[in-house]
From TrEMBL:
The keyword Cell inner membrane does not apply. Keywords: Membrane, Transmembrane, Transmembrane helix. The keyword Isomerase does not apply. This is Branched-subunit amino acid transport protein. InterPro entries: Brnchd-chn_aa_trnsp_AzlD (IPR008407). The lineage of its organism: Bacteria, Bacillati, Actinomycetota, Actinomycetes, Pseudonocardiales.
Length: 106
């Protein structure tokens, strides 16, 4: 029974996502958005991404994640900003977090 309760929202979201993408392709030449709206949509996407990163890096469940995880995310962010390859970013962030935890930083 629980599987059906989970499957229905997933299918609804999948159909909605498909409709948005397909609708965007069909209406690309017919609908013009003002430049201000385009700017706000871009800013909104950045704010949403930063909020997702912040909650993932700073919390584990309902509690603070400790200092090692945010430090690892910071290392990865700095390397990504410096245009390091993705593999290097991920490995360096994981290594920084692991080394800090090994050193006793929670």
């Amino acid at each position: 029974m629980t599987g059906n309760l989970t499957l229905v929202p997933i299918l609804v979201l999948a159909a909605g996502t498909f409709a948005f993408r397909f609708g965007g392709t069909l209406l690309r030449d017919r609908v013009r958005m003002p430049e201000r709206v385009r700017d706000l949509l871009g800013t909104g996407a950045i704010v949403l991404l930063v909020a997702l990163i912040a909650t993932s890096a700073l919390t584990r469940g309902p509690a603070f994640a400790g200092w090692a995880l945010p430090a690892g995310v910071l290392v990865g962010g700095l390397l990504a900003w410096r245009k390091a390859p993705c593999v290097v970013v991920v490995i360096a962030a994981a290594a920084a977090t692991a080394l800090l935890r090994l050193a006793g930083v929670a």
